[in-house]
Amino acid sequence: EAGLIRGYRTLLDEKQLGYDVTAFAMVGLHSQTEADLMAFEETVKSWTIVRESYMLSGEVDFLLKCVSPDLQTFQNFVIRELTAAQNVDSVRTALTIRRTKDEPIVPIEED
């Protein structure tokens, strides 16, 4: 009733499901007008390879967390879809080496 619970999820092991690559894409846009930001957000929602997306302040406009079965699939996404998307000015990518922490919940301090 208080709206604290947004939903429930089952967290699956992506590696066991064949998604061996986790990478981040840092995207800069030509224009940051509200209409252009919203249009990019809608495009991001259509990309299944993107699992999380954050609008940022600073030098990068969006940070995208991507999972793919292999490096070639991720590279194809970056080249054919992400860099080709409307209003995209720059893309920098970083491949993860390993996950060192995975705490998907909010830290709640106990009294």
Short description:
The protein has 111 residues and is an alpha+beta fold. It contains two helices and four strands, in the order E-H-E-E-H-E. 23% of the residues lie in helices and 27% in strands.
Describe the structure.
- This protein has 111 residues and is an alpha+beta fold.
- It has a domain of 75 residues: 2-Layer Sandwich (Alpha-Beta Plaits).
- It contains two helices and four strands, in the order E-H-E-E-H-E.
- The chain has a four-stranded antiparallel sheet with strand order 2-3-1-4.
- The longest helix has 13 residues.
- The radius of gyration is 16 Å and the shape is globular.
- It starts with 20 loop residues before the first strand and ends in a 16-residue tail after the last strand.
- The model has no long low-confidence stretch (mean pLDDT 94).
Descriptive labels:
111 residues; alpha+beta; 27% strand; globular
SSE diagram, text form:
Blueprint: E1 21-29, H1 34-46, E2 50-55, E3 62-68, H2 71-82, E4 88-95
- Cα distance, first to last residue? 23 Å
Helix content: 10-25%
* CATH topology heading of the domain at 21-95: Alpha-Beta Plaits
Range of strand content:
25-35%
CATH architecture of the domain at 21-95: 2-Layer Sandwich
* Main β-sheet description: 4 strands, antiparallel
